[in-house]
Amino acid sequence: MNKRFTQILATSIAAAALVGSLGACSKGSSSSTTEGPKEITMWTHAAGNPAELAATQSIVDSYNKSSGAKAQIKVQAFPQESYNDSVVGAASAGKLPCIVDIDGPNVPNWAWAKYLAPLKLSADLSKNLPSTVAKWQGETYAVGYGDVALSMFARKSDLAAAGVRVATIEKPWTKDEFQDALTKLKALGKWDYPLDMGTAGTGEWLPYAYSPFLQSFGGDLINRKDYQSADGALNGDKAVEWAKWFRGLADQGFMATKSGKDSTQDFLNNKSGLLYTGSWAGDKARAALGDELVVMPTVDLGNGPKIGGASWQWGVTSGCNNTDAAMDYLSYSLKPENVAAVIKATGGIPATDEAAALIPAFAEGGANRIFMEFSREYAVLRPETPAYPFIATEYGKAVQDILAGADPKPALDKAVKAIDANIKSNGGYKN
Amino acid sequence: MTTTHLPPTPGRRVAAPAPAAPPSKPHRRPRYLREQFSGWAMIAPAAVLLLAFVFLPAILGFGLAFTNARLVSPRPVEFVGTDNFVRLFTDPTFWRALLNVSYFAVVVVPVQSGLALAMALLINKKFRGVNFFRTLYFLPVVTSMVVVSLLWLFMYRKDGLINEFLSAASFGLIDGPDWLNDPATSMPAIIILSIWQAAGFHMIIWLAGLQSISGELYEAAQLDGASRWHQFRYVTWPGLKHTRTLILVTITIQALGLFDQVSVMTQGGPLDSTTTIIFEAVRSGFKQQETSYASAISLVFFVLVLLISAVQRYLTREKD
């Protein structure tokens, strides 16, 4: 009986293997032409955002119809939550598409893992916002159509009632002024908490939103000299000072340790006086509040205001069998009118002045022009190291623990220890 | 089986070629073999799937736990011995996760099974509308845990339904806590939600057990003048022996595998008060890309579950 069982097992496994390899064969044969396949695939995370997807699709359609098209591009869209997992899964299976979009800070990780090939574009990237061009070890691996910028929203009337000055790019709020503004706003008694920092956020929001404050204090996520250790940067005096300040905002009753799920909506419903959020909320807030809305730069905590740089960007995978066409498509898609179309759909900041000129809100004097200034003046790229995904999770956990009342220094020490161990176990993330 | 004619061996006198099976059905296998074949054939699809998606990954996981494999990495995988386990056992978060899971299991196993039994006893009657109550109690089970967690997320908020209710019921005396954002209440909050969601499922198992007890036993007990409590104590409870074992083991394993609620509602926080072993494994393996470390956590978890189930099986074994 055992023998028979083994036989059946062997047959079943052989059958399964056969089916599998047949599938692989049929895939392989289609790509064995000499000048590269006529159809290449492009993945995007925009499945949950119909406007963005439609804008991307229309660029692809116009490229496919253009006479110079070197291949037909096929778009496949994924929901954002499962997008990274899909790419990692496809990469381990050796089935990555030719063109992928990538969240900016992940670019070094994917370049290090050899998912991505350096870009060779005919488009000129020198005039792009610096945060829209992702480089690692001297090579450009990805480029974005735009960026987003963090800022402070408030109502004019509230600031006036509290006697608080409107912060400007020329003169942002200092740490003391911010403290003063919050005290005065709280004294109005209009809200449970005058400030909403989006503390209910999870995942990439945590490092994206709160590491700029750390940097404004003079700390950082890692020592950027050689990217080998976070010691001193993430747990030094400046970092501890940041943690105490951040936790202090909650202790003084200025903000909730866990805000509502939708900070923008809470602000529009007049549940908070000051909102810390991204440029993506600008159009919605302006539509609701009109001229009442003031958009201000974030706070200068010592080293000038800082905001996170880099949003979703495009790259070409190293396994692509028609790199030429992929690069050609990317160059084509970076034409100002294409960039403008996508940016209009996503509510981002256009990567170039040429594209900005095509969008009234971003043209000189436009309502959203200020976000472009923020991005130009304050953007700090999240550390360009393959260790970033790990750093991001450790920092995010430290932020949540500190908000929940953990002692700042040990919480930061723990993150540093984990980050340093991770970098070491990966041989310093060198090639 | 042999149908070819061998040359007759000298010295052996055989009258005729071996008396084979009756000539009328020369190609049919014996009946028991055919039955066995169809049996194995029917198992095969499930066996292949199990092998491919359960056993193979499990074995791979065991192996990976002793390497430095990463989810995303251009570096070759190296054998690192017990490094991952050393790191695991010196990680305070892991011990905290173990503690949380034990806390969860110790509360959930008795409370949930008790509640489920009470519900099963309530609906194990014949009266008008009993199906309505059965449906009502079972409803949370059909709802996905993720959806349930999202709903309760709103109810547990500082200004959520539960606190509003507490405040109204106590005429404003009780100011409810920020349930999920306070290390003292986060785990109890998750426990309450979990019991509410899963009790209906075990109620159905209890109900099946209750209905397998012969009605004659109750009639006999009533004739003997046994009270309701005595009927339960001496008829129902012994009659549920096997059901009890099943429920004990399944609830324990489910409790140890706590993940969905934590992932949706608290992400292990605040201050690691709700982190669990599975949550740590998923966090390390997918978010932090440390496949090998996650494998080590899973391996430890596997051994743990195996041990606890074995102990439970031993304690609840047939003693005669």
Describe the protein in words:
The complex is a heterodimer of chains A (431) and B (320). Chain A is built from 16 helices and 15 strands. With 431 residues, chain A is an alpha/beta fold. In chain A, strands 2-1-3-13-4 form a five-stranded mixed sheet, with helices on both faces. In chain A, strands 9-10-8-11 form a four-stranded mixed sheet. Chain A has a two-stranded antiparallel ribbon with strand order 5-6. In chain A, β1, α2 and β2 (72-77) form a beta-alpha-beta unit. In chain A, 51% of the residues are buried. Chain B is an all-alpha fold. The A-B interface holds A 1, 4-5, 8-9, 12-13, 16, 85, 88, 91-92, 109-110, 112-115, 202, 256-258, 260-261, 389-390, 393-394, 397, 400-401, 403-406, 421-422, 425-427, 431 and B 36-37, 40-41, 44, 47-48, 51-52, 68, 70-75, 87, 153, 157-158, 178, 180-181, 183, 267-272, 283, 286-290.
Offer a concise description of the structure.
The complex is a heterodimer of chains A (about 425) and B (about 325). Chain A has about 425 residues and is an alpha/beta fold.
